[in-house]
Amino acid sequence: MSSPLQPLPDIDLRHLQRMTDDTGLFQHAIYATPDANHGYCIDDIARALIAGVLHAQLVRHDEKLIPLHTYLAFLAYAYNEDRGKFRNFMGYDRQWLEAEGSHDSQGRTIWALGVTATHGPTGPIRQLSNELYLKALPTLHGLNFPRSWAFALLGLQAYLHGKPEHAESRSLRDEYAEKLFAAYTGHAADDWPWWEDEVTYDNAKLCHALLLTGPAMGRPEVTDAGLTALRWLADQQLSTRDDGTTCLSIIGNDGWLQRGKPRAPFDQQPLEAYAMVDACLQAARAVEDTTQRTEWEAHARLCFEWFTGRNDLGTPLYDPETGGGRDGLNADGVNQNQGAESSLAYLLAVLEMHRYAAEA
User: Fold this and answer.
1) Which of 50, 59, 48, 170 is nearest to 119 (CA)?
2) 19 with 75: CB under 8 angstroms?
3) How far apart are CA 15 and CA 49, in angstroms?
4) How many helices and strands in the chain, by DSSP H and E?
5) What is the dihedral of CA 18, 117, 60, 352, to 10 degrees?
6) Which tens digits make up the pLDDT trace of 89-104?
7) Lowest mean pLDDT: which of 3-7, 34-38, 129-133, 157-161?
8) Contact predicate 204/275, CB 8 Å
9) Which long-range contacts does 240-243 make (Cβ < 8 Å, 24+ apart)?
10) DSSP of 145-175, one letter per residue?
């Protein structure tokens, strides 16, 4: 029986290469041209580092294809020794725009460093990532929000994959997994199995973190909570189109989904589609039943096809002419700009599908 993920989409690096200079990755684009006015953002460069490591695992490491050293150098320079935290935004003039970044940006950076310390393609890349990861671990003690916990958990678990006996990582992993699980059980109800009364951004990463850490900790109740929340989230984001087919219909950031109210249909963000693909693939790994595994694989494919036109407007977000991803699905059409976050969302979704297939 063939997987619903087949055939696998191509890996397209053209726009990532276009958006990268010798400092890092431009945050925004005007259509498909980098927009220097908005400089750089550690969130995007952390995602690019993860994409580069995945690509190196699947294909090969070639600095000319994806400059991992450039992305890693940005993360190293972003670390503020005085604050013990990472900065986030940098102008095109290479001047930092803040002393420290948000809680989410700290979590995303730890995620990237944990992945790269374990899976980086060369010794020097792994060594520097390991040093930065260990230096930044104290940062995690101050994270206060469920999504920043979830991002950090992805990095902690990735690091433990390579160094399972690292006590501080294990302790932090257990602490934040318990916090995330407790926040869920303390708020979830049968008709609203969620962490908060509002469903906002990067939602599937909350489920993903429980699905990843539950099995690793031998906590089936944590895994089950992740599956329950993800099923509910998937149901909230299904729509039937005029032709009778279903599609992913992402909760829009123009109002989100608030308990007791209709969800906002637009503006739909590509990052959400990627998060759903990634979480569904993790759900497929977490279940033992073959039928359930196939169902999660099929839903991952449905979510991926949001990028290629299986969405509310029937319009592709991925641009095969440039290799980039358009910035969002709005009520009046597609945002034609192809910024780093949106393009990386498509690229990471493709890479995760290839990784899942390689594991299988």
Assistant:
1) 50
2) no
3) 15
4) 12, 13
5) -70
6) 999 999 999 999 999 9
7) 3-7
8) yes
9) 241/312, 241/314
10) SHHHHHHHHHHHHHHHHH-TT-HHHHHHHHH
